[in-house]
Design brief:
By secondary structure, chain A is mostly helical. Chain A is about 55% helix and about 10% strand. A three-stranded antiparallel sheet of chain A has the order 1-3-2. In chain A, helix 1 packs across helix 5. The chains are: A mainly alpha, B mainly alpha.
Chain lengths: ~100, ~190
C-alpha cells in the first residue's frame, strides 16, 4: 500500500461502492453516480487507489463498432483493497454513524 | 453547434489526459474519459464532463505551474483556430477593398493567403499537413492568427503596408517551422 495514502470519507465511499459491487464492477461514470462524488474529485482518488494497488482497472471486452461506444474501464478491489476497506470500515463506522454505505 | 461542442470536448479530454506525467496513465485516462463521455447524451453534458477532467489532470501534476501554462497555451491555440475561421470572410472583405483601390502586390498577397487558408480548411479543423515539411499546424495557425490580429490593429494605425508586413511574418513562420523540424529530426 502507498505510504502517503490518506484515508478520507470520499476514498472510503469509493472503496465501499466497489466492495458492494464486487461481482458487478463499476466504471468511472457509474462509480461517480453511485458515490455522489463528482468526476473531478473521483479520478484523483482512483489514481491514488491504483497507485496503492488497492483497486485494479480492466478494459471491457466489447466490440466498439457494434456497441457504438468505446470500451469502458471497470474497477475492482484487489485483495489489499478489500482488507483495507474492511479494517477501516470497522474503525470508522461508529464515528460516521453508518453514512459510509452508498 | 452540438457537433463542434463534442469535438471541443474530445480535444479537451485528449489534451488534459496527455498532461499526465505517466504516459501509460495518460493513455488509460484518455480512453477512459472518452468512453465515459460516450455515455452522456447531450453535447453540453459532454462538454461539462470534459471540463471536469481538468481537476484530476491538475492534481496529477508534479508541478501545478506547468499545467497552468499548458492550459493557457492550449486555450490560446484553440482560440487561434477559431480566430482563423473568422479570418476567412474578413480576408474576403479586405481583399475586395484592396482590389478596388490597392497596389498589385497587396492584391497578390491577399490572393495567396486566401488560397493557402482555403486549402487548409476543407476538413473539420484547419490542417496544414498537406504542405511538405510543414509539420506544425497548431503553431502555424497561431502565427497566422497573431499575424492577422497584428495586421488589423496596425492597419488601423499605420495603413495598408501592414499586409506586406503580415506576408513577411507568414514567410518567416514557414522558415521557422521548417528549420525547427529539421533540427528536431536531426536530434532524434
Amino acid at each position: 500500500m502507498g505510504k502517503d495514502l490518506r484515508i478520507n470519507i470520499n476514498l472510503l465511499k469509493v472503496l465501499s461502492a466497489l466492495y458492494d459491487a464486487y461481482t458487478t464492477p463499476h466504471y468511472g461514470l457509474s462509480l461517480s453516480k453511485a458515490t455522489g462524488i463528482s468526476n473531478g474529485a473521483l479520478y484523483p482518488i482512483i489514481d491514488k487507489l491504483e497507485d496503492a494497488r488497492l483497486i485494479t482497472g480492466t478494459w471491457e471486452d466489447v466490440d466498439e463498432h457494434a456497441a457504438g461506444r468505446r470500451a469502458r474501464r471497470y474497477y475492482q478491489l484487489t485483495g489489499d483493497g478489500v482488507r483495507l476497506f474492511e479494517a477501516e470500515r470497522t474503525k470508522l463506522m461508529p464515528i460516521l454513524g453508518g453514512t459510509l454505505n452508498v | 453547434m452540438s457537433d463542434w461542442t463534442e469535438q471541443l470536448a474530445e480535444k479537451l479530454i485528449r489534451a488534459l489526459a496527455d498532461t499526465y506525467p505517466s504516459p501509460e496513465r495518460a493513455e488509460t485516462r484518455k480512453h477512459e474519459w472518452l468512453s465515459n463521455m460516450d455515455d452522456l447524451n447531450s453535447s453540453w453534458a459532454k462538454f461539462r464532463y470534459a471540463l471536469s477532467c481538468m481537476w484530476p489532470a491538475l492534481v496529477a501534476q508534479p508541478n501545478y505551474l506547468m499545467l497552468a501554462l499548458q492550459l493557457f497555451l492550449g486555450t490560446f491555440l484553440l482560440a487561434a483556430r477559431v480566430f482563423v475561421l473568422w479570418l476567412l470572410p474578413q480576408m474576403l472583405i479586405t481583399m475586395g477593398q484592396t482590389m478596388a483601390a490597392g497596389h498589385w502586390i497587396d492584391v497578390s498577397i491577399q490572393l495567396f493567403l486566401l488560397a493557402f487558408l482555403l486549402m487548409a480548411l476543407p476538413r473539420h479543423d484547419a490542417d496544414f499537413n498537406w504542405v511538405p515539411r510543414w509539420n506544425y499546424p497548431d503553431r502555424v495557425m497561431t502565427i497566422i492568427a497573431i499575424m492577422s490580429l497584428v495586421g488589423m490593429v496596425s492597419g488601423l494605425l499605420f495603413g495598408p503596408m501592414t499586409v506586406r508586413v503580415g506576408f513577411g511574418l507568414f514567410i518567416a513562420a514557414g522558415i521557422f517551422s521548417t528549420w525547427t523540424r529539421r533540427n528536431s529530426s536531426r536530434s532524434t
